[in-house]
Write a structure and sequence with these properties.
alpha+beta; Pseudouridine synthase; 12-stranded mixed beta sheet; 4 helices; disordered N terminus
């Protein structure tokens, strides 16, 4: 699924049908999951209103949809303990973290069930056998050297220590970072565009920093959007909409699509 510079837009692969399984944040450990034909809004710890959907589950693997505003893993402080991993573990005690999304990003996340599945999935990520696609709405319309193709942002990134958790382009100490992008829809009247994004590397805040460096920050980005783009949307308009990975036991390639909520 990874495009290269100058390649045509790849066709969407076959889709694995979701199970519409919903994770209850208050379920006791070991409780049996409940299947439902439609989304159910479930309570969080605290006064929030996020809910979590599970697109797929078997004895080795979970594919979850994280809502914007929910941490992937616990953070520092009592207000950051409710998170995707703890909710999953309330129903599946053997669920283990494989990768993360930023708190403000929504979309598909895979978790392993058991240490062996986690090792196998971690290896798949290391060997770049896992493909991820995101959708973002950005400020402005990028200038295209050629229409209908994928393009490359190739800028090294590093943590901005004096201003952490911010990251930035750093040609001296930054790690190599590449993002492929495709213009899906231009909205000239509203001075914005919808992009498809495929990160080749997985640096912290990579998509957000690369798009800012390109001059097109993501709408609703409180860290990198500036005074204008940050206030043009009620949330960060970045969604992990497609995930393709080999099953940790069978090796079968599974592909999941999540509808973009904006």
């Amino acid at each position: 699924m990874k495009p290269r510079r100058g390649t045509a837009v790849p066709e969407r692969p076959a889709v694995v049908a979701p199970t519409a399984l919903h994770l209850n944040a208050t379920a006791s450990a070991g409780a049996s999951p409940t299947l439902s034909p439609s989304p159910i809004r479930l309570p969080l710890e605290g006064d929030f209103g996020h809910h979590v959907d599970c697109w797929y589950q078997d004895e080795h693997l979970l594919v979850l949809e994280k809502p914007a505003g929910l941490h992937s893993v616990p953070g520092k402080g009592d207000d950051k303990q409710d998170c995707l991993s703890r909710r999953a573990q309330s129903l599946f005690p053997d669920a283990l973290v494989v990768h993360r999304l930023d708190r403000d990003t929504s979309g598909l996340v895979v978790m392993a069930r058991g240490i062996e599945a986690q090792r196998t999935l971690n290896k798949a990520f290391e060997l770049r056998r896992v493909d991820k696609r995101y959708c973002a709405v950005v400020q402005g319309v990028p200038h295209l050297p050629s229409q209908g193709l994928w393009h490359l942002i190739d800028l090294p990134l590093a943590l901005d220590w004096p201003n952490r958790p911010l990251h930035g382009v750093d040609f001296e100490q930054g790690k190599p970072s590449q993002t492929h992008w495709h213009l899906e829809q231009a909205d000239v009247d509203n001075h914005q565009a919808r992009l498809l994004l495929e990160p080749f590397t997985g640096r912290s805040h990579q998509l957000r920093v690369h798009l800012k460096a390109m001059g097109h920050p993501i709408l609703g980005d409180p860290l990198y959007g500036g005074l204008d783009a940050a206030h043009r949307a009620p949330r960060l308009l970045l969604h992990a909409c497609e995930l393709s990975l080999p099953h940790p036991v069978t090796g079968e390639v599974l592909t999941f699509l999540s509808p973009v909520p904006f």
